[in-house]
Amino acid sequence: MSEPGSLIRTLSGRPTARNFHSYVINEVGRAIVSGEMPVGSSLPGDAEMMDRFGVSRTVLREALKTLEAKGLVEARAKVGTRVLPQSRWNLFDRQILTWKLESGPSPAFLADFRLVRRGLELQAARQAAASREAEHVRLLYYWLNQRSVMTHQPEPFALAEFEVHRVIAEASGNPFLRAATALLEFGIAHAVQGRLTSDLLAPPEGLAAARTPHYEALVAAIEKGDPDHAAAAMDRLLED
Fold this sequence. Notes:
This protein is mostly helical and 240 residues long. The chain has 2 domains: 8-88, Winged helix-like DNA-binding domain superfamily/Winged helix DNA-binding domain (Arc Repressor Mutant, subunit A); 105-239, GntR ligand-binding domain-like (Four Helix Bundle (Hemerythrin (Met), subunit A)), CATH 1.20.120. Helices cover 63% and strands 3% of the residues. The chain is built from 11 helices and 2 strands. A two-stranded antiparallel ribbon has the order 1-2. Strand 1 and strand 2 form a beta hairpin. It starts with 19 loop residues before the first helix and ends with a helix.
């Protein structure tokens, strides 16, 4: 399982696997999501996989169970383990979205993603304005400031921007919006990735300035308890 922030950390390079179990999951998962292991294909047999990754049968089986739980593969007796189509994948899973970001999502995938994200974020902004508490407002202004302070540091900047959106989801009080933060993180990581130089550095003008007025309007509307203006500000932000 991946924790919040793991998606954004791909901006500074591929995260290192913590153990053999996560190593197998990462390598096989990436290969499936990138298309290196095509849909409908069968994974190699246990002996070959154990030799390739240098792991025991127990570690391999547990890793494959994790991938099966994510909807990436399906094991069948006498058939083996085959790769499932994207329609079966859990696209709310932070790890799958990380692999998507690394492999380069298609225009069609991004169009579908933006449609879903817009619906979630507009509703989150509207509900946050109606039910926010003082601590939520304090955190929003804190992370808004951090976003500006870190404008030339891609990873801390993206984490600060993600926290703004995460706090809005938290302030909404809606458990389904709170549970969708992997989608928000994917959107921010992809947007920041697209604004970096070829050396993975922030541009000379920084990452914050162009969108800061939209963020300020969004946080101000939430602080005032104005759902309509909060939703409108979020809409402008996502359009930009």
